[in-house]
Write a structure and sequence with these properties.
By secondary structure, this protein is mainly alpha-helical. The chain is built from 12 helices and 3 strands, in the order αααααααααααβββα. The protein has helices at 4-11, 18-23, 28-33, 43-64, 70-81, 83-92, 103-107, 112-133, 135-145, 150-155, 162-174, 213-228; strands at 179-186, 193-200, 203-210. The protein has a 3-stranded antiparallel sheet with strand order 1-2-3. The N and C termini lie far apart (48 Å). The relative contact order is 0.12.
C-alpha cells in the first residue's frame, strides 16, 4: 500500500479529494494490466497541469523582469518547465515511489523514458493541485519547486543548451563559430551510435557519442564547455 499522506507532506498540500493526487501518478501502462483499477490514467491531469505551470511561470517572469526581451524570457521559461527540471522536482519529492506502472515500466529505471514519465507525473500533480485547491495552491507549489531555482539558472546560464552556450562563448572569446563533424557511425540502422567532433576552425576541441547526431553534438558541446573552462 502506498501512503499518500507522505507525498502530501512533501508536496505541502492536504488534498480535499485524495483521488486527484492518486490519479496524478497512474501511468497508462498500469491500466493495461489492471483494467478494473478505480481511477483513470494521468494524461488529462498532465494536460491541465502543463497549462497551469506555463501560466504561473510566464506571469512570474513577465511581472518580475519588465526590461527583459521576450526571447530571453522564453529561454528562461523553457529551462523551468522542461522534462529535466520536472524530473528533478520529481526526485526531490520522491514521486517515483508513488507511481503506478506496469511490470515492464517498473523495471525500466534510470532511462530517458522514466524521466519523461516522472516529468509528466509532476505536470499531472500540478493539475491535481489546481483542481483540488485552485490556482493559488498550484502557484505556491510551482514557486517553491521550480521558480526557486531561477536564480541559479540565470547565474550559471543554465537556460542555454550546451550547443548554444558553447557557440556563444566561442564567438565571444575565440571570435570563431564552432562546427560539428561526424567522426564515426557504429551499429545497425535501428541502433546506431554516432561519434561527433566539435571544432573551432581546424582544431578538434571535444568529442561526443550518442544515439543520434543531435545527441552526440550536445554531448560534444558539454565536453567542450568543460575542456575550455566555460
Amino acid at each position: 500500500m502506498k501512503d499518500f499522506s507522505i507525498l502530501e507532506e512533501k508536496v505541502g498540500v492536504k488534498f480535499k479529494n485524495p483521488d486527484y493526487l492518486k490519479q496524478a501518478v497512474v501511468h497508462r501502462s498500469y491500466l493495461n494490466e489492471h483494467p478494473k483499477f478505480q481511477l483513470g490514467h494521468n494524461e488529462r491531469l498532465e494536460f491541465l497541469g502543463d497549462a497551469v505551470l506555463e501560466i504561473v511561470v510566464t506571469e512570474h517572469l513577465y511581472n518580475n523582469f519588465p526590461d527583459t526581451p521576450e526571447g530571453d524570457l522564453t529561454n528562461w521559461r523553457a529551462s523551468l518547465v522542461n522534462s529535466k527540471m520536472l524530473s528533478l522536482v520529481a526526485s526531490e519529492i520522491e514521486l517515483e515511489k508513488f507511481l503506478y506502472l506496469s511490470k515492464g515500466e517498473s523495471k525500466d529505471k534510470n532511462s530517458k523514458a522514466r524521466q519523461y514519465i516522472l516529468a509528466n507525473a509532476v505536470e499531472a500533480l500540478i493539475g491535481a493541485i489546481y483542481l483540488d485547491q485552485g490556482i493559488k495552491a498550484a502557484s505556491k507549489f510551482v514557486h517553491k519547486m521550480m521558480l526557486s531555482k531561477l536564480e541559479n539558472i540565470l547565474e550559471n546560464q543554465l537556460y542555454l543548451d550546451p550547443k548554444s552556450k558553447f557557440q556563444e562563448k566561442a564567438q565571444e572569446i575565440e571570435k570563431v563559430t564552432p562546427h560539428y563533424k561526424v567522426l564515426s557511425e557504429i551499429g545497425p540502422d535501428h541502433a546506431k551510435t554516432f561519434e561527433v567532433g566539435l571544432y573551432l576552425g581546424n582544431k578538434l576541441v571535444a568529442k561526443g557519442k550518442g544515439s543520434s547526431k543531435q545527441d552526440a553534438q550536445v554531448k560534444a558541446a558539454r565536453n567542450g564547455i568543460k575542456k575550455m573552462g566555460w
